[in-house]
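Dear V.,

Thank you for sending over the compound details. I've combined the ligand you provided, adenosine-5'-diphosphate, with the protein sequence from our construct and run the structure prediction for the complex. I'm sharing the raw inputs here so there's no ambiguity about protonation or stereochemistry in the SMILES, which I know was a concern on your side last time.
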Amino acid sequence: MDVFIAIVQILDSTIRLSVPLLLACLAGLFSERSGIFDIGLEGKMLVGAFAGAAAASVFHSAFIGLGMAILISVAFAMVHGFASITHRGNQIVSGVAINFIAAGSTIILGQAWFSQGGRTPALQPGERFDAIVWPGAEAVRDVPIIGPIYAELISGHSLLVYLAFLMVPFTWWVLFRTRFGLRLRAVGENPAAVDTAGISVAWLRYRALICTGILTGVAGAYLSMVQNGGFVKDMTAGKGYIALAALIFAKWKPVNAMFACLLFGFLDAAAIRLQGSPLPIIGKVPVQFMQALPYILTVILLAGFIGKAIPPRAGGVPYVKER
Amino acid sequence: MAQAAIELIGINKSFGAVRANRDINLEIARGTIHGIVGENGAGKSTLMSILYGFYQADSGEIRVGGQPASIKTPNDAIALGIGMVHQHFMLVDNFTVLENIILGAESDALLKRSITKARSELERLEREYGLEVDPDAIIEELPVGLQQRVEILKALYRGAEILILDEPTGVLTPAEADHLFRILKQLKEQGKTVVLITHKLREIMAITDTVSVMRQGTMVATRETKKTTVEELAELMVGRRVLLRVEKGEAEAGAVKLAVKNLTVKDSRGVTMVDDISFDLRAGEIVGIAGVAGNGQSELLEAISGIRHAVSGSVMLDGKPIDLTGKADPGELRDRGLAHVPEDRHHVGLVLAFEENENSILGYHDDPRYLKGPFLNVDAIMADAKDKIEKYDIRPSNPRLKTANFSGGNQQKIVLAREMEQDPGVLIVGQPTRGVDVGAIEFIHKRLIAMRDQGKAVLVVSVELDEIRSLSDRILVMFAGRIVGERGPEATEGELGLLMAGVEQEAAA
Ligand SMILES: Nc1ncnc2c1ncn2[C@@H]1O[C@H](COP(=O)(O)OP(=O)(O)O)[C@@H](O)[C@H]1O
Ligand SMILES: [Mg+2]
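Below is the predicted structure of the protein with adenosine-5'-diphosphate bound, written out as structure tokens.
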């Protein structure tokens, strides 16, 4: 039974740890499917986390915090759009620039406004998204097997966790069942086809980036307002990049993306759990190895196991009509 | 004359320093098929893209059906009933036919309803015009002929009354082209207006009512097709007289340079593409291989040039065998005097992102002439490139220009110059003038005949019968992987056509 509880606990933290990855991964999916590479997921999450925590603690409202996180993150997405869609700049350079600006500006503004060494004030109840306890969760907790699963895994997460997982079928539906999704996929494959079909390539791509901004905003808000009771500098800690790895791994498909993020979240959860405790046979596994595992896994699996991951064909290439 | 469907008045368009269209005036009558001819780079595609709203003219006026029209985006053009089939297809390769057809013309925010509606509409169009295509097929799995059909359906689905086709036959086999022309005639009978861009003059003569000629961005003439001739059009296009059939003397065939014996080649699916073929190629002669595309010519060429595995048979170059495992070293074959101008020059013959001078030595870059110790001898390469540019009249004459910025015809000249100037004993050329304009065709044909007269052995594969007949000293016809007949240059088109279609194999022999 101990082992079972341990497993449930690891899975529970898997869910918590995979949420920011999942939101960022779906964010990247919207932009990359439209043909805009976005290495700036990391930066947008970071500004989202900062804006969310800052606004929540100033206005004493979690929802104002969330709204602010989304707003600022979308604004950064629009900067990326302005550079790479309107001005046809290099998408990687623009994304990296956004990451730098995000890292620097959150620290400077945090220090200037709150004077707590780049942190925002610790969030009080009501300023953060608390766990939602499902009806009967406490009652069934002691029922074997089902009890812990319901009480730990299903119940007891914050609103944003449920939102993140609902985004998976929703993204799939938007992408494959709506007109917007058809056009979005088309513009990532062949923008000239979209253009000659009478649709504005630029406007379509801007809309895709707005979706990206919203999702990275929510991801950021989750980090600072759910996982942590406030903003800490550089708190994204490379999650934006792991999300990109997950996106490739998932071959740019929403449901795959969920499994990829859960896998990476699981590795993270296992790493934390196993920290310091020796495993049978292998002995003590260095934390760094566990942290590097998502990347190693991506490379190995891409190299042989999941077949070729073909990115959207027009990805990364600015749409230029007249040379 | 019937009422004008389209009037273009004083259209100007520049791309940077290039004036693609200057002061163009053009009137196209409703219910006719209007041809536009001109060499590559004359500005035909640009002009039609302006009419379609893809580009914006710098100045000028467009009238549709007599009314001044403001066409700022393709959407405006579509709303005015203008449809266009672009030279490079505007399809999303991994979408289905239906998805491509509704893209931008969805009837509903939800796909399902749009698709259901489009499916029945598509069935109607297919029936009406004989444009059958599987609506659920994925575009990249369709042959180009069918992809083009999807483009036409796309335009018709949007209710096009005026249909522009930009070089539609460049990618088609003769049979597919014939089918296309029947469809165009049918569209015309239904009162639609068709604008056909091409540089194949025979097509213009065969199908158009009127024809306009463009040259270097200007509109030089408009003629009624009945009242003009191929010769006149060619002269208008190029601005000088061109020989449509190059003069050549008798061949003086010498020793056997290349001997193909019982060659059999299968493709990746295991289908026999070349079936037990034998022939000799002698010094001082041009042998032409005719046939409808897809009858094994490509595979034959690839096997002979050592890049495709042959299951059985042998190929002897100057009496010594060529490695037919598909792993032959092309460098070694070059050293042995075999030069190859591949059919697909974009993928196999050139690196488009390289500068012209780099492509002009590609594959010969190990030659001591181009080296200075371990480094490339840039001065020598440049001098060599300039020399070829002058000799082959490659335009623009700038060896530092990126190869992608040359027109198709000039790219072909870059490859030809590279291979021919190495003075090979045997030259194998696939589709020597595909996508090449009239002026350059004449030039390329003359060079090939000059090679022959210097005693080289030349093997030409082409789907253009005219080309085969005008160049070859001996014509081999391929059908379903076999050589079904050998004829002299005096063979008539009809006779070769029958052989190419696989009819009457023995009777004619
Ligand atoms: N998108 C573009 N950007 C820059 N130059 C172009 C573009 N399209 C065409 N051109 C140039 O304009 C001229 C006319 O080209 P085009 O209209 O494609 O000729 P055609 O269709 O008659 O072969 C050429 O010199 C070509 O290089
Ligand atoms: Mg053109």
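A first observation: Chain B has 17 helices and 22 strands.

Warm regards,
I. M.
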